[in-house]
């Protein structure tokens, strides 16, 4: 990390106390993140300082407008519930000029947050109980934002979950076949085409008003939930860069896709890839217990569809990138994106074979909490 740039950023803030250490956190893949420690009369206080990856997020000002609005709303919701918000929601630290962003001498965009203390995140689900905690965290996130004025949010990644548009782009990639790979992916191409009508259903339901737009996190992996070091309970949902308007089905579905699979999303031994029903049940219980009375019936009735569509969409993105010559996702081998697509499509096939069981689980849990 460039010390000169860092000093220019720190000069833009008025952190109380005396700085004692700056530690780079290297677990993230998108933004550059530091932990700042300051000594104050009552002890030490930590902050997070991040440089936003403007290649991934072209309009950091709009990203931060969304983050600021959402975190302020969550802060008010926690207070109204009689809870101390200090360690339960990210808080944007303003610059000396009162802005959410600070620019370094190279034009890099930085933001600062409070540090969620005495907490950690988990990269992979280790038990149904743990996944239930994650489900409650994302359910609380959805519940506390249920009355957020959705029209205030910027669409920072246009058409992010427009599955119909993604399928159209996929067909264009098949037709171009710029990398000469369509023949190698013939089976996967046929798999996508056979599901075109079914996988466009959420987009159509949003368009006709059956499904409402809500604040969605859009990256509901378990490692975006901070849990208490002692109790193991969820404290705070983090990584809010992709917060936008969307369907609650997307957040539910992506959490299931990532967390309830028995294998990594690029597993090559497809015999290892399936849906873990115990994990599915645990997350659903956690999520629905917090959202059943806030979501409309059409949302509750289509949660399983969300899991199918998100698994399909991620596989479709991998396959499209493979056909385009691997221009978006980082790869470790020439067929890495194809292997990823195969893995997601195997998971989807397993979900399809267990759909009736999944629907029955959701139905019973919803009825219990209504």
How would the global form be characterised? globular
Reading off the top of the CATH hierarchy, the class of the largest domain is best stated as: Alpha Beta
Tell me the number of structural domains.
Answer: 2
Question: What is the CATH topology assignment of the largest domain?
Answer: Aminoglycoside 3'-phosphotransferase, Chain: A, domain 2
Oligomer: single chain
H/E topology pattern: HEEEHEEEEHHHHHEEEEHHHHHH
Corresponding CATH architecture of the largest domain = Alpha-Beta Complex
Unreliable segments of 5+ consecutive residues: none
| Average pLDDT rating | 95
Separate helix tally:
13
Largest sheet: 6 strands, antiparallel
CATH superfamily of the largest domain: Aminoglycoside phosphotransferase (APH), C-terminal lobe
Q: Rg from C-alpha positions? A: 21 Å
DSSP, total strands: 11
How far is the N terminus from the C terminus? Answer: 51 Å
Beta-strand residue fraction:
5-15%
Structural class: alpha+beta
Percent in helix: 40-55%
Spell out the key features of this protein:
370 residues; alpha+beta; Phosphorylase Kinase, domain 1; Aminoglycoside 3'-phosphotransferase, Chain: A, domain 2; 3-stranded antiparallel sheet; 13 helices; 14% strand
